[in-house]
Design brief:
Blueprint: E1 2-10, H1 14-24, E2 30-33, E3 47-48, H2 50-58, H3 62-68, E4 71-72, E5 75-80, E6 83-89, E7 97-98, H4 101-112, E8 118-121, E9 124-131, E10 137-144, E11 148-159, H5 166-170, E12 175-179, E13 182-190, E14 199-204, E15 207-214, E16 218-226, H6 230-233, H7 239-246, H8 253-259, E17 267-269, E18 272-276, E19 280-281, E20 284-286, H9 301-322, H10 327-372
Parallel strand pairs: 1-2, 1-11, 2-8, 5-14, 11-20
Antiparallel strand pairs: 3-7, 4-7, 5-6, 9-10, 10-11, 12-18, 13-16, 13-17, 14-15, 15-16, 19-20
Helix pairs in contact: 1-4, 1-9, 2-9, 3-4, 9-10
Length: 373
């Protein structure tokens, strides 16, 4: 089956879904393709910062998302041996917002579906990018569950399909990987009674542990481990590893004992950042993690994708109307976003490299203050 559209977006995560909605709202025919059978597959980076919040409010998505459920975290806390020794209160009234991905994508899709120029295709896996004789991208071939091969002819392809982007690979865009010296173990457990929504940090065996409050009464644990150490770690008993977390956060003991029993209860994230030599080719652009993977530090990833979508939604309509979708014209989008993204990536490195020193100095200062009194 063949389809024709102005814009074909691959990947219905926050960036791709938002871009599809913003274009469809401007009466630009848009097909959004997602390989999963449903929207809102759970993922780790579900925290909205000030930039992401501002954009979702600007486009009147935040209100519906809030009605479905989100959680504002009141502050950032630093813990040791069961006690808070440093607290940072945000001037915004919250230190971040947890938004279940399903709630975010449902809110975007509900509003996008109102527009006849929007079409969502689930269960569809891209297999090939099509080009004309001049090398400009003109559409995609894909396999759709229950239908076999489909062809989507489009004026531009947008790759919003994440860190392992198929679009990026098929377009032969070089992705430069930067390791940060650590990987991350994720786990999710129910929050104890009277747990105040917050972001909590601790230092365990010289590695950062972060706890993020989540909507519906859960806590997400993000535990840094030395790069490549998981293979040897999982050969050992998990219990001594878990016991280390109980020292700074003894209130988690009961929930951990009930919900964390083996290494299978953790999800390993290989941590790296990346930058591509280019984000655009004639008839094609990549956004979000496909163009610039970030580490979990500062929870910038989802918010950067949202910002990419917002900027590109303002640039594409004019280029489409002019029929000027060559790489040189699309470079306007990349130039508008690249420096901001690279600055955030540099900021992540500084934050990661200085965490242990700042944590130790803050603890030392607190002890000195207690001695004075």
């Amino acid at each position: 089956m063949n389809y024709q559209t102005d814009v074909c977006i691959i990947g219905a995560g926050p960036g791709g879904a938002l871009l599809a909605y913003l274009l469809a709202k401007q009466n630009i025919s848009t097909i959004l393709i997602e390989r999963s059978d449903e929207l809102g597959k759970e993922f780790r980076g579900e925290h909205l910062n000030e930039d992401g919040e501002m954009i979702l409010k600007k486009h009147h998505i935040f209100e519906e998302m809030e009605s479905l459920g989100l959680l504002r975290m009141s502050r950032v806390e630093y813990w040791k041996d069961g006690h808070v020794f440093k607290t940072i209160e945000s001037e915004l009234g919250h230190a971040g917002i947890h938004v279940p991905q399903h709630h975010l994508l449902q809110s975007i899709n509900n509003q996008a579906s109102i527009h006849p120029s929007y079409k969502l295709m689930l269960g569809t896996k891209v297999t090939e990018l099509m080009q004309n004789e001049k090398g400009q991208y003109t559409g995609i071939k894909a396999q759709q569950k229950g239908r076999g091969e489909i062809i989507v002819e489009s004026k531009i392809i947008i790759g919003a399909d994440g860190r392992y982007s198929t679009v990026r690979k098929l377009a032969h865009i070089k992705n430069n990987i930067h390791n940060h010296g650590y990987d991350l173990l994720w786990a999710k457990i129910p929050a104890p009674a009277n747990w105040e929504p917050s972001i909590k940090f601790a230092l365990v065996e010289q590695q950062q542990v972060a706890l993020f409050s989540q909507a519906k009464g859960f806590i997400q644990i993000g535990w840094n481990i030395k790069k490549g150490s998981y293979t040897s770690l999982r050969k050992q008993s998990v219990q001594p590893f878990l016991d280390q977390l109980i020292l700074p956060f003894p209130q988690l003991k009961e929930s951990m004992e009930q919900n964390l029993h083996s290494w299978k209860d953790f999800i390993l994230l290989s941590v790296y950042s990346s930058h591509c030599d280019t984000w655009v080719k004639s008839g094609l652009a990549i956004i979000g993690d496909a163009a610039h993977t970030m580490t979990p530090t500062g929870a910038y990833g989802m918010n950067a994708a949202i910002m990419d979508a917002d900027v590109l939604s303002q640039i594409l309509p004019n280029l489409l109307s002019q029929g000027s979708l060559k790489a040189g014209n699309l470079k306007v989008f990349e130039n508008a976003r690249r420096k901001t993204v690279e600055d955030l990536q540099a900021q992540q490195v500084v934050t990661e490299d200085s965490f242990m020193e700042k944590f130790t100095n803050s603890l030392k200062t607190e002890k000195e203050n207690l001695t004075l009194y």
